[in-house]
Amino acid sequence: MDVLNKLASLGVDVGGKILLALAIFIVGRIIIKYLIKGLSKIKKFDELDPTVHRFFTNAFKFVLNAILVISIITVLGVPMASIIAVLASAGMAVGLALQGSLSNMAGGIMLLIFRPFNVDDYVSATGEEGFVKKIALFYTELLTIDNRTVIIPNGPLMNGNIVNFTKQGKRRVDLVFTTAKSESPQKVQDIMKSVMEANEKVLSDPAAPFAQVSGGTNEAMEFTVRAWCETADYWDVYFGLIQGIVEALGAAGVQAPAARIITESKA
Asked: The dihedral of CA 48, 49, 54, 55: what is its sign?
């Protein structure tokens, strides 16, 4: 009888814990559901990038479910010390195994929050240049001007220098031209300025077109040419000025007109 009484008492105790754990699970899932819905209604949170929004939603859901599971395990009588030890060991193992991936994920979150660039911006980073086609959680995808797809991990990308050629809206075209040393500097400068002023895509703001002697050798003079334009028009102005100025100088009888590219940017 004593054995039966002990078994009955144990059954009642275990059954009660199981029922309580089940009740906590049901109520907990309902609470988590409403908390997730409430999170999505926060205006600032809803304005986040969709990738960041999804990440934080999933992270919040994971934390709430983890708390729920720990609560249920505690109710069932499993010692907390054992749970903490297992979680710590598992966390360390996962952290070591995914060290690089976690670094990339952290970099992706920072990129998506602080936005040093957006999709379709032209950027230079980690030795690569191209149009941003995708900003994912673990990597960023660039499309180069010669149609190569470059995948850059977000960890190194966020920790390095990033040059955004698109963000300011306007860019300056810098070129250097050479002519024979016997030519009149003023004549050459006037021709260069007239070509720039005739180009409808060249802007007068933030600065008017510029052309001045900037150096030379025993055989030639160097002229620096600068012109502002909209970022979207950069290449049209860049190549248009090279061809237009060289042709105009040749038509005016200027000897040995030539262009020397001084900018290293491909953007």
From this structure: negative
